[in-house]
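User: Assemble these into one structure.

Assistant: Restating your components, then the assembled model:
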Amino acid sequence: MSTLAVGWGRALVFVYGVFAVAATGRSLLQLSTDADKAPLAYSLSLFAAVVYLAATTALLLGGRIGWLLAATAVGVELTGVLVVGALSYAASDLFPDKTVWSHFGQGYGFLPLVLPLAGIAWLRHTRAEAGHGSRDN
Amino acid sequence: MLCGITMLLLLVHLVRDLAAQDGMFVLLGITELVLLGQLVAGCIALGSTDREVDGLLFVSYLVGVTLVLPIGAFWSLAERNRAGTAVVMLAVLTVAALEVRLDGIWS
């Protein structure tokens, strides 16, 4: 078990896993049933799903590579939720239907906004260990 | 019918937050049984209703909600400390959120 997935990291992995499944299921269902309605929104949900999957995998992987991967995924996630969140207010005609990240994750209790911040906090906390190479696994 | 089950679940959740570890897992087991019952009852209800319910979405939620607690329980059992308890609490919260969505899909 990697050091990124123990303690509070274990709780973090669980939430990322839930979001990975939720976003994947949602985007695949929407893309397969009515993709024409809001292709941009549904594609963004699929992109969010990939990011959540990458973050979950990276946290489980652990070690230096896992840490770097997780940091990248969480960074993309924070950027995504901020940009899509802002765009969904500023250019609402771009989004005839909602994405996971619309309105800063309002449909999910703003968790998509809180989650990357928690992820960054956890990765900062574990950075020292990850920097010393692969003594875990 | 689904509203009733949701209410029952939320009551169980309230009790669970106060319960100790072993009692917690008994309650998790009971909740899981209720959820499995809900899966069967929900499918039957879907077959006999004339409401406008998205069948694929409804059934995938019914199945999904039964998977959360077992996964959460095993994931937390690997580490029996505060973090493990937090995982169980997150799993229960997830179930509650999914139940609210299920209720929304049904009506």
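The first helix of chain B runs from residue 2 to 18.
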